[in-house]
Amino acid sequence: MKIVETAAEAHGGIAAAKRRRVLVPTMGALHRGHLELIRLARAAAGPEGEVAVSIFVNPLQFEPGADFERYPRPESADEELCRGAGVDLLFRPPVSEIYFADRSVTVEEHALSQTLCGKSRPGHFRGVCTVVTKLFHLLEPDAAVFGEKDFQQLAIIRRMVRDLDFRVEIIGAPTVREEDGLACSSRNQYLTPEEREQAPVLRAALLEAAERARNGERSAEALVRLVRERISAAPRARIDYVELVNASSLEAVVTLAPPSLLAVAVFFGKTRLIDNIQLP
Ligand code: AMP
Questions:
Q1: 100 and 158 housed in the same domain
Q2: Is residue 181 part of a domain?
Q3: How many A from CA of 211 to the centre of ligand 1?
Q4: How many helices and strands, by DSSP H and E, does the chain display?
C-alpha cells in the first residue's frame, strides 16, 4: 500500500500522464501584450508541451453598467492571431457553456481585493477568481501566464492558487507598451484621437515618480501628489485612484519601502485605463 502525506504527491499521478499544458486566459481582442504572454507560455511549455489560450468575456467580472456589452469581440482576427502564434488549443466557450442560470457558488479573495481596483470595482475580483478557477478545472493546465499590467489580479490569483492548493504554476509577464509608453490594452481602441494622445501621461507620470524615488524621495504623499498633478494636467483625464502600496500586501504605505508599487486608474471619457510601476 502506498501512503501519501503531501498534497504534491497526491496530485503527482494525474500530472505525469499528460503533456505539459500552459494556459493564457484572456478576454480576446488580442494585442501585442497577449502575444507576449503566448510567447512566454510556449517557452514554459517547451516544444513538446501545449499552449492553450482561452477567450472568454466574463460577465461576472463586469460591474452593472460597465462595458460588458460593448467589449470588442473580433473573433476571426483573434483566431488568426492564435494560429499565427502557434497556439495548440483555443478555448472559446459561449457564456452558457460556463455559467448555469442558477449558479450559486463563487470564489472570493478577501484581503488583496480590498484595495486599488477592488475598491472601485466591487465584485470584479470575485468574477475573476471564479472564472479562473473554472478555467483551471476545465483545462487542467500545469502553468498559467498573467500580465503585470493587471498587477492586483496577478497577486490575487497567486494568493488563490496558494490558499486553495491549485497545482498550477503562475507565471507573471512584464507589461508590453506602445511606442509612446501607453500599456497595450483591448480598451485602448475605445479612446478618441484626443484621449489617445493624452493617455501616455499615465506612464510618463509613473516614470517621473520612480525617478523622484530613485533620487531619495520616500514620502508616499509626495509621490502620489506628483503623479496626480501630472495626470491632472491632461484635460481629458479623470483620476479614479493613484496609490502607493506595499507590493505584497497591496496596502497603502506612508513611507516608501521596497517592495512598493505605484498604481493608477484613470478614466478618459468612459474608458478606464490602469498602469503601475514597481519602485526601487
Ligand atoms: P485581458 O484580455 O485584458 O483580460 O488580459 C488577459 C491577460 O493579458 C491578463 O493576464 C493581462 O494582465 C494580460 N495583459 C493585458 N494587457 C497586457 C500588456 N499590455 N502587457 C502584458 N500583459 C497584458
A1: yes
A2: no
A3: 26
A4: 10, 8
CATH number reported for the structural domain that contains residue 240 in this entry:
3.30.1300.10
The H or E element spanning position 54 is strand 50-55
Q: What is the CATH number of the domain that holds 66?
A: 3.40.50.620
Domain count, the chain: 2
Rounded distance between C-alpha atoms, residue 228 and residue 265, angstroms: 11
Domain containing 208: what range? 186-279
Q: Spell out the alpha helix ranges (H) of the chain.
A: 7-17, 32-45, 75-84, 95-98, 116-120, 124-139, 151-163, 193-198, 201-214, 220-232
3-state secondary structure of 213: helix
Cut 0.70: pTM above it: yes
- Could you list the mean pLDDT of each consecutive 10-residue stretch along the chain, which spans 280 residues? 79 67 98 98 97 97 93 97 97 94 98 98 98 96 98 98 98 98 97 98 98 97 98 98 98 96 97 96
Distance 156 CA to ligand 1 centre (A): 15
Q: At which residue does the C-alpha cell 457553456 appear? A: 97
Kindly report the protein residue whose alpha carbon is nearest to atom 22 of ligand 1.
147
By 3-state DSSP, what share of the chain in percent is helix, strand and coil, each rounded to 5?
A: 45, 20, 35
Question: Does the C-beta of 157 come closer than 6 Å to ligand 1?
Answer: no
Contacts of 1 (CB under 8 A, 6+ apart): none
Q: Do 133 and 253 lie in a common domain?
A: no
- The residue to which cell 496577478 is assigned: 154
